[in-house]
Amino acid sequence: MPLNVIVIDDSPLQLLLVARLIEKNPELTLLGAYANPLLGLVAVNSAAVDLVLLDVEMPEMDGFEFKAQLEKEVSVVMNSTKAIFQEQACKAGAFDFLQKPISAADLKATVSKMATLKKYFVPETKSITSIAS
Fold first, then answer.
1. For 82-132, what is each residue's pLDDT tens digit?
2. How far apart (Å, rounded) are the C-alpha atoms in residues 94 and 76?
3. Handedness of CA 3, 75, 61, 46 (dihedral sign)
4. d(C-alpha 17, C-alpha 41), whole Å
């Protein structure tokens, strides 16, 4: 089952590039791409989102403020052209940090990490019939 993804980046070019990477990856479904983080925040808080690809530096609200305002648990992968933000992203609770430009290989590696962690840390659910047997 593909992961539902929302991308938030104030750069229209980055939005387009990352959206194309997501559309080419069968493990991901693009739910939306937002240049305005305030609109993106509303979308993330109201949709069934598994992953947010989030730019760190944006004029209306930076990625750290955005992450702090999330109303639910969702995996956030922060990204920036500046590697200096990697440690701060991890301390803020980001699942991962990707340095721009994001490549298909970078995105695939992050999705792989998510799948591995989900496999080992999310309990398997059993149907009622298998429990009754």
1. 999 999 999 999 999 999 999 999 999 999 998 888 776 655 544 444 444
2. 5
3. positive
4. 21
In this structure, the chain runs to a length of 133
Is the bond preceding residue 101 a cis peptide, omega within 30 degrees?
A: yes
pTM over 0.85: yes
Specify whether the CB–CB gap between 106 and 98 falls below 8 A.
yes
Q: How far is CA 29 from CA 22, 48, 73, 85, 107, in A?
A: 7, 11, 18, 27, 13
Which pLDDT does position 130 carry in this prediction?
A: 40
Domains and CATH numbers, the chain: 3-132 (3.40.50.2300)
Residue 113 burial (CB < 10 Å; 0-12/13-18/19+)?
A: middle
